[in-house]
Amino acid sequence: MMKSLVMGVALATATPGTSAAASNCAPRDVVVDRLAARYGESRQSIGLGANNAMVEVFASPETGTWTIIVTTAQGLTCMIASGQAFETLAEAPPAPGTDA
User: Fold this and answer.
1) Residue 3 lies in a domain
2) Tens digits of per-residue pLDDT, 25-69?
3) Has this prediction a pTM greater than 0.70?
4) Overall domain count for the chain
5) Residue 54 domain-assigned?
6) Which among 1, 12, 24, 50 has most CB atoms closer than 10 A?
7) How far is the C-alpha of 82 from the C-alpha of 59, rounded, in Å?
8) Is 76 within a domain?
9) 38, containing H or E segment
10) Is 12 part of a structural domain of the chain?
11) What residues make up the domain containing 65?
């Protein structure tokens, strides 16, 4: 199932501020509400990216769909990537000096 939440083929490589991303961006509350209502996705993880951008992963444990969004410091939220087969992992980090 391909998401139609203003997503295009260029979504996986689009970043906030590019013309490809412009059609994949909206206020954060609109994006979060749509992910919950249409796909049953909720936030699974969060982190800070470059320029204080908030990076979030939303997913549905029931359906396995997932979406990565980035919210700029100015408040614009853009969808960066989406897919299927999401799994939550609890892996221990590799021991120092060993390959990951």
Assistant:
1) no
2) 999 999 999 999 999 999 999 999 999 999 999 999 999 999 999
3) yes
4) 1
5) yes
6) 24
7) 9
8) yes
9) helix 28-39
10) no
11) 23-83
